[in-house]
Design goal:
The chain is α+β, with helices and mostly antiparallel strands and 417 residues long. Helices cover 26% and strands 21% of the residues. Among the domains are: 86-185, Guanine Nucleotide Dissociation Inhibitor, domain 1, CATH 1.10.405.10; 271-363, Guanine Nucleotide Dissociation Inhibitor, domain 2 (2-Layer Sandwich), CATH 3.30.519.10. A 7-stranded mixed beta sheet has the order 6-5-13-14-15-12-16. One of its GO terms (molecular function) is Rab GDP-dissociation inhibitor activity.
C-alpha cells in the first residue's frame, strides 16, 4: 500500500509536472521539454556492479523487468578540484590525485590488499585486519591524509571517519568490493536503472503479481491497528481494515504526525536530517570530460564538515530527461540551522543551474526490531548516492523477520546493460 499515486514512495522518479507540483505547487515552464521525457529521482542512488544490491536484484530475478546503463565516471573532490577515481593502473599513474612518491606508497597499499590471504602470514606484513585499525594500516604505508580521504570515502564509501578507529577487516572488504565492481565493466563501478529508480518498485510489483501480490497506489494509511496484546492486527485505509500477520513499513508512516497504533507507541526516532537539491542543468558537470553521468564525493575533511557531500548526475543517456539536459542531485546530512547553505560546495561545482528544487527530510530509525509486535520498520534513505546502505537495511529486516541471515545465491550472474 502506498499513499502516493506513483510508484516508489520517497525514492520515486517524477515526471516534470509531478516535480513542479510537489516542490512549487505550480505548472512546469514550456522551455524544459516534454513531460514524458522526465524521470527525476527524488533520492539519487547508483548500484555497485558487484555489490549486495546487485546480488539481490539477480537473486530475485527482478532484473528481467529492468534495463541498466553504466555510469560514466566516479570522481572525488580534493584540494579545491574534482579528480576522477582511477579505473585502471594507467589512469592511476596519470591521476593528479597523488604526487609521484604518494603513488608509490598507494600502489604498495593496494598490492597489500589484493595479495592478502588470511591463511598466509607472509602476506600480512605484520598487520592483523581483525585487530589493527584502518588508521594503523594507513600509517604502515605512510598514506597522506588526502589519500586516506579518497580511499575511505570514494572507494570504501564510508559516511564519516569513525571507521579509522575500527578493525581494518570491514574497510578491506569494502575496498575490494569497489575494485571488483570497477573491474566488472570498466570506467566506473556503478550501474543505474534506465528511466529512473522508480522502475525498481514497478519491477518488483510486476514480479510480486506473479506470486499473487497486490500493489495499491493512492491508498492513504489511516491507522495501524494492534490488538490487546500489542501485536499487529491490520491497517485501516478509507474506512476498511485489511488484516495480516505482520506489516513491513517505510518509517514515514510511523513518524511524527502519523498513526502509531492503538497503543500510542512512537515506533521511530528522528536521528538526523538530510538536505537534497535537485538541479536541472543544460551542460555536463564541468571538469568531468563531458561525462553523461557521474558520481562525485566531497569528503568531509575537504570542506571542514562532519559528513560527506554527494553529487549524482545523469542525463538523456539514462532516459531521465530530454537531450542536452542533465539532472544533478546534491545531498548531505544537515549539520547547521541553514541546511541549503551546506550544499554550496557541491552546487558550486555544477556551473549554471536552470532549476533547483530543495528538500529537507528527516532520517528515521526504528526504535524496536519488530519481533514483539510484528511491525517491522525500515530506515530512511541516507544521503549517499549508492545502494549499499539500503541493501544492509534490507538484509537486517529479513533477519529480524525470519531469524535467519539473508542468503543470496546466483550472485555471480552479471547484469547486462
Amino acid at each position: 500500500m502506498d499513499r502516493e499515486d506513483y510508484y516508489g514512495g520517497a525514492s520515486a522518479s517524477l515526471n516534470l509536472t509531478q516535480l513542479f507540483k510537489k516542490f512549487r505547487d505550480s505548472a512546469a515552464p514550456d522551455n524544459l521539454g516534454r513531460d514524458r521525457d522526465y524521470a527525476v529521482d527524488l533520492i539519487p542512488k547508483f548500484i555497485l556492479a558487484s555489490g549486495t544490491f546487485t546480488r539481490m536484484l539477480v537473486h530475485t530475478d527482478v532484473v528481467r523487468y529492468l534495463e541498466f546503463k553504466q555510469i560514466a565516471g566516479s570522481y572525488v573532490y580534493r584540494d579545491g578540484r574534482i579528480n576522477k577515481v582511477p579505473s585502471n593502473e594507467s589512469e592511476a599513474l596519470r591521476s593528479s590525485l597523488m604526487g609521484l612518491f604518494e603513488k608509490r606508497r598507494a600502489r604498495s597499499f593496494f598490492m597489500f590488499l589484493q595479495n592478502w590471504k588470511d591463511n598466509d602470514p607472509a602476506t600480512h606484513q605484520g598487520l592483523n585486519l581483525d585487530k589493527n585499525t584502518m588508521k594503523d594500516v594507513y600509517t604502515k604505508f605512510g598514506l597522506e591524509a588526502g589519500t586516506q580521504d579518497f580511499v575511505g570515502h570514494a572507494m570504501a564509501l564510508y559516511l564519516d571517519d569513525s571507521y579509522l578507529q575500527r578493525p581494518a577487516r570491514e574497510a578491506y572488504e569494502r575496498i575490494l568490493l569497489y575494485t571488483s565492481s570497477m573491474a566488472r565493466y570498466g570506467k566506473s563501478p556503478y550501474i543505474y536503472c534506465s528511466y529512473g529508480l522508480g522502475e525498481l518498485p514497478q519491477a518488483f510489483a510486476r514480479l510480486s503479481a506473479i506470486y499473487g501480490g497486490t500493489y495499491m497506489l493512492a491508498k492513504p494509511i489511516e491507522k495501524i491497528v494492534t490488538g490487546d496484546d500489542g501485536k499487529f492486527v491490520g491497517v485501516t485505509s478509507e474506512g476498511e481494515t485489511v488484516k495480516a500477520k505482520m506489516v513491513i513499513g517505510d518509517p514515514s508512516y510511523f513518524g511524527a504526525g502519523n498513526p502509531d497504533g492503538q497503543d500510542g507507541k512512537m515506533r521511530v526516532v528522528e536521528e538526523k536530517k538530510v538536505v537534497r537539491a535537485i538541479c536541472i542543468l543544460k551542460h555536463p558537470v564541468p571538469g568531468t570530460d563531458d561525462a553523461d553521468s557521474t558520481q562525485i564525493i566531497i569528503p568531509q575533511n575537504q570542506v571542514g564538515r562532519k559528513n560527506d557531500i554527494y553529487i549524482a548526475c545523469i542525463s538523456s543517456a539514462q532516459n531521465v530527461c530530454p537531450a542536452n539536459l542533465y539532472i544533478a542531485i546534491v545531498s548531505t546530512i544537515v549539520e547547521t540551522s541553514v541546511p541549503e547553505r551546506e550544499l554550496l560546495p557541491g552546487l558550486q561545482l555544477l556551473g549554471t543551474i536552470q532549476e533547483k528544487f530543495v528538500s529537507i527530510d528527516p532520517l528515521y530509525t526504528p526504535t524496536a526490531d519488530g519481533k514483539q509486535d510484528n511491525i517491522f520498520i525500515t530506515k530512511s534513505y541516507d544521503a549517499t548516492t549508492h545502494f549499499e546502505t539500503v541493501a544492509e537495511d534490507v538484509a537486517d529486516v529479513w533477519e529480524r523477520i525470519t531469524g535467519e541471515k539473508l542468503s543470496l545465491d546466483k550472485s555471480d550472474v552479471e547484469i547486462q546493460g
